[in-house]
Amino acid sequence: MNLRRLWAIMVKELRQLRRDRVTLAMIMGMPILQLLLFGYAINLNLRHLPAAVADQAQTSGSRAAIQDLFASGVIELDAQVQTPQQLLDLLRQGRISVGIVVPPDFERRRLDGREALQVLVDGSDNVVQSAAGQLAQYPLNQPDNFHARAITPISVVSFYNPERRSPVNIVPGLVGVILTMTMVLFTAVAIVRETERGNLELLITTPVSRTELMIGKVLPYAGIGLLQTTVILALGVWLFRVPVRGSLGDIYMAASLLILANLSLGLLISTRAKSQFQAMQMTFFVFLPSILLSGFMFPYAGMPVVAQWISELLPLTHFLRLVRGIMLRGADFGDLWHDAVALLAFIAVMLTLAIRLFHKRLD
Amino acid sequence: MTDIAIQARGLTKRFGTLVAVNAVDLTVPRAHVYGFLGPNGSGKSTTIRMLCGLLTPSAGTIEVLGLSIPRQAEQLKRRIGYMTQKFSLFDDLSVRQNLEFLATVQGLSRHDTRTRVDELLLRYHLDDRQPQLAGTLSGGQKQRLALAGAVVHRPELLFLDEPTSAVDPESRRDFWEKLFELADEGTTILVSSHYMDEAERCHRLAILDNGNLVADGTPRDLTAKLQGRTFLVRTDSPRRAKQVLDTQPGVLSVAQIGNELRVLMTDTHPNADLLRGKLAGVGADVDVQPVEPNLEDVFVVATRRHASQQEQPA
Do the chains contact at B74 and A4, CB–CB below 8 Å? Predict the structure, then answer.
């Protein structure tokens, strides 16, 4: 490998990138936009679900019970209706997510110790369903419930994110998601574009070796990846008070591993794709499972075994374990070494395949 | 060091069932401008790509500058320049940046890069275009830049694949001046083209048709073989005369040029009187004169002969 040639390729790549305003804007715009979207808009701890009440008892006790439910903050009163049938209509129209039925014999049922309230839930949304389910655990306002509270058999203590704020979980993961999306795509497209424009036919008749060509094209993007990491982390800490409990060095190390893994995957795609469009499609073929199966959206433990196998193959899965461990639990590489090894193995396999499959030939 | 730059024997390339290049034998002497003439799809680009090691031949042997190709292709790459048919420099880099990149990649030192790029910019009239993006240059300027890029490391051998196909006549003349300058300095040049006037200027040339080498030699030798077989017919009604001649045995081709017909005959009946006789019925005023054969005639003979051979039952 000749360092001057490698340097020439990197400089060329950066100069081309500097002229490409749209890509430049994407490099910085994408992390910021996604951070704001995920940080502010996505919240799995639901509040203020629209609700309606059909109070057929109309006693002071029923009114107090309803007041209590609304005091939880999970639901918000949208309408008062007369019959349960009207509640069903509102649910079907999608105007409310929760309906509360107070039967006429509310007081009798309460004294008898039978179920006194009915909560109707729009089950077409999973998250709404489980949030409304919490209402059933809510103690009704009566003296006996002091006992009920006292004898709840299990108490849950939440470590690392006691306020259950979504950004705390999402920001570290978002570093991984954005790096997966941009790094794979940039490298794949960067090489395929040269094939499309005919530049590659020129490059392969020069003494440039394939290793020089690949590394020279990839390294500038690794720098960009680290820049993106910095932007997301800085904004995450500043806007969403995401804690950084482990060492910053470990975080960047984990990010570098993920960046290299994604770049080598991008290179592999570039050796197979015939056009930029194909490269883009192949990138999304990898990107979607990464989002869904890595544990970014849904917990790994809840997946069927086959999905877990696929999940283990994705670099993002291992990065998420690393970065959540380091940032939120204050872990270090010693605690999480097997995920680091998994990423290294991924890089080795992809890079070997990519350099093997890339020929300085046209056939 | 031998006097032969390229030696290929039985060079063949198949893409699936298609035979793009069929058993071509080539010998290119050093410091010559060697032309590759043939219509589109005749296998010129494929042959060039095999010679510089970009494509692996299906059969045959290649020796370029004493190296066995494709086995020693990497060693060859330091010693050749290749100008692709399509402009393949970077549209989004400036003229100077393109040349500097190629110079560095070809292994020139920092100092050599600067002086060599300055020299090339002057020589190829691009010094006032240095900061301009390559993608915004005119056709002729792009061509000169591509040539400058191909010779940045002073290669011994230069492959040019239809370098002037997108260039106006004046730029073409200019471009050929540059090629002869390079040849005078000792560079061997293999250039493909489908322009006859360009072929005429080569030291030697090969005509390719459907992947077959159908003629090979100096332009003078090739045209000399057709001596006495070409005639110019002047008549008032050239279209009727053409119709008559087209069906005559012994007439290979008739091409109308303004009010004149250029007639090429097979070597068995080259006779002006014969033509006059045939044309007696066409009109009163028919004049037939022998003329010097040109490369276009060579081209017609070479490609026709091959086609008729193919039609014969094996």
Answer: no
Q: Which residues have CB under 8 Å from A223's CB, separation 6+?
A: none
What number does CATH give the domain B4-217? 3.40.50.300
Show Cβ contacts of residue A141 under 8 Å, excluding neighbours closer than 6 positions: A64, A65, A67, A68
Q: Which site among A2, A5, A203, A205 would you substitute to test the B interface, given the most B Cβ atoms closer than 10 Å to its Cβ? A: A205
Beta strands in B166-291 (DSSP E): 188-193, 204-209, 212-217, 230-234, 251-257, 260-265, 287-290
Indicate the residue of A2, A12, A198 with minimum beta-carbon distance to B88: A198
pLDDT at A138: 64
In terms of Cβ atoms closer than 10 Å to its own Cβ (0-12, 13-18, 19+), residue B272 is middle
Which residues on neighbouring strands pair with residue B206, listed in sequence order?
B36, B216
**CATH number belonging to the domain at B228-292, selected among 2.60.40.1120, 1.25.40.390, 3.40.50.300, 3.30.70.100:** 3.30.70.100
Summarize pLDDT for A90-125 with one digit per residue, the tens: 888 888 888 888 888 888 888 887 777 888 888 777
Alpha-carbon gap, residue B263 to A34, rounded angstroms: 75
- The DSSP code for A45 is S
Both structure tokens of A43: 């919240």
Map residue A140 onto helix, strand or coil: coil
Q: Is the Cβ pair B84, A363 closer than 8 Å?
A: no
Tens of pLDDT, residue by residue over A214-244, are: 888 888 999 999 999 999 999 888 988 888 8
Phi-psi region of B55 (alpha: psi -120 to 50; beta: other; left: phi over 0): beta
Residue A72 has pLDDT above 90, yes or no: no
Q: Which residues pair with B289 in a beta bridge?
A: B232
Binary contact (A206, B105; C-beta < 8 A):
yes
* Min Cα separation B14/chain A (Å): 11
Answer yes or no: do B80 and A205 touch at CB < 8 A. yes
CA distance A198 to chain B (A): 5
- Residue A150 predicted with pLDDT over 90: no
Separation of CA B147 from chain center: 16
CA distance B46 to chain A (A): 10
CA A330 to chain centre: 20
For chain A, the domains span 3-42+164-357, 49-150
For chain A, how many helices (H) and strands (E)?
Answer: 15, 4
Cis ω for the linkage preceding B70 (within 30 of 0): yes
CB contact under 8 A, B90 and A362: no
CB of B89 less than 8 A from some CB of A: yes
Q: What is the C-alpha R_g of chain A?
A: 27
Cβ contact, residue pair A5, B104, below 8 Å: yes
- Ordered by start, the domain boundaries in chain B are 4-217, 228-292
The arrangement of strands across the sheet holding B230-234 comes to B251-257, B260-265, B230-234, B287-290
CATH architecture under which domain A49-150 falls? 3-Layer(aba) Sandwich (3.40)
Residue among B55, B101, B102 whose CB faces A362 most closely: B55
